[in-house]
Structure formats: C-alpha cells, structure tokens
Input
Amino acid sequence: MNLLDGKIVSQAVKDRLKAQTEERMLNGKKVPHLAAILIGNNGASETYVASKVKSCAEVGFKSTLIRFDEDVTEQNLIFKLTELNEDFDIDGILVQLPLPKHISEQKVIETIYPEKDVDGFHPESVGRMVQGLPAYYPATPYGILLMLAHYKIETKGKHAVVIGRSNIVGRPISIMLSKNEYPGNCTVTVCHSHTHNLKEICLQADIIVAALGIPEFLKADMVKEGVVIVDVGITRVIDETKKSGFSIKGDVDFKEVAPKCSFITPVPGGVGPMTIAALMMNTFKACEAKD
Ligand code: GUN
Output
C-alpha cells in the first residue's frame, strides 16, 4: 500500500506557484489576489478559509478576507460580489459554502464573473469543463487530478467508481475522469443514495472516489485488491481524547481498507491540502489571464 500524500504534492504545487509569482514580481507584473467571503461562524468553514488565506501568503499572493454575520441579506452579499467583480486588482473570488438558508447559493454563484470564478462553480465554468474547453475546474476534483498525475496513476481504460454526485465533487470528478486525456479515459460509474448493488459495483472498481460524506462508509469487503482509493470525506466526529473535541474522519474505513489498496489518500492530509493547492492554481491562472 502506498499513500497518495496530499501534503507532499500540495507543497510541490505551492513551491512552483511561489517561484512563478516571484518571477511575475521581478517582471513588474501583477501579483495574484484572491478575495474570500466567509459568512457566519461555522467551525469547519472558518478552518478552510483560514487555510486558503494562509496558503495565499505562502505562495506570495495577496488575499482579502471579507466576513459577514450569519444574518447578512442576500442583497448585501450580492452587492459586495458586484464590487469585487469590478475591482481590477481582485483576480479570484470565492464564497465559502454552505451558505445560510435564506441566501440562494445558485444566485450567489451566478453573480461571480466567470473569469473570477476560481471555485469553478459558475454554470459557464461547468459547461466549459464538460465540453473540454479551458475552464476553471472546481478545486477538489482538480486537486484529485493533480494528485493522480503526480503519482502517475494509470487511468486509461480503468473503471472508476465515484460515490456521490454533488456539484462540488462527485459530478465534476466523474466528468473529468471520463475526459479524453490523462488523467482520464476512465469508464466511470456514478453511485448515489439510490444506487442498487453498491457493494458489487465497488468490487469492480480499479479506482474509487468516495465523496458521500458518511464517515468510514467504505469497508474492506467492498473493494478489490490493488484498488486506488481517493477519500474526499472530511466529517468532524466527537472525540474526547482530542484538545479540539473532535477528530476528522474520511468516508473510507482506512484501517481495514488500506491494506488492500495499491494507493490510498489519508484523511486528513490527502485531498484536503490538494483542494487548496488547486484553488491557488486557479487564482494564478485568473491573474495570468489579465496579462
Ligand atoms: N465548501 C466545501 N467545499 C468547498 C469549496 O471547494 N469551495 C467553497 N467555496 N466552499 C466549499
């Protein structure tokens, strides 16, 4: 069993971006600038946004964190996004999800200009991605591709089973893995809550992307020897032994499944850091597009 180590790969991506950003500065070019919007005080969202802002500093990007209270109106949020859209210095805009119930996620996503949509959630970005056109790929699936490529995982002709069909991970990764280029050319099966015979389908998989959000769902008797597993789960579960009071669990029962795998991502330290590295890549590209 080999680890797909997101800490190592994301560091390599960030080192490259740091060098490229320094080069831009030396050439008198614009430095990438990410604007992140955080609403309310959801603990997990706070952690993710803090990591994104920290990563910007690590690679030499500028970042602006904008916070709103939980009860911010949709109108005020949209107004801020409109301002950021028009601000030349801002290259990428991200609104951390989930949003409070009274705000339409779709409306917010569609307000962000596609050229600043570094999360890759705008319908235009998704449409371009589906058609194989240059696009901002959503950060988590993009991070998974970067990781598979780093470890030179063979994907051509392989059966990839994706568990979960969210707009953020399951659906986009299923499209990306079926693309006619590396890392892709997989035969992809998308499984979800209505799938019959999930275990039998998983047993046929050469690659499994587990993105359903149920801690330790995937067990050893559901996978074949030599499978490659990408675990996207990051559920917080109560853990009295931890200072924080919780630990992070993936969607895969790592202890029992890992021995059967050729490669597997750990949680934490797998997909999580790759998501952030991919966001940095998108922000860099958004800046470069203005040259
Ligand atoms: N919430 C969970 N994942 C993501 C992500 O990739 N981007 C944003 N903006 N919010 C998220």
Remarks:
- The mean pLDDT is 97.
- Residues 94-97, 119, 139-140, 168, 275 surround guanine (CB under 6 Å).
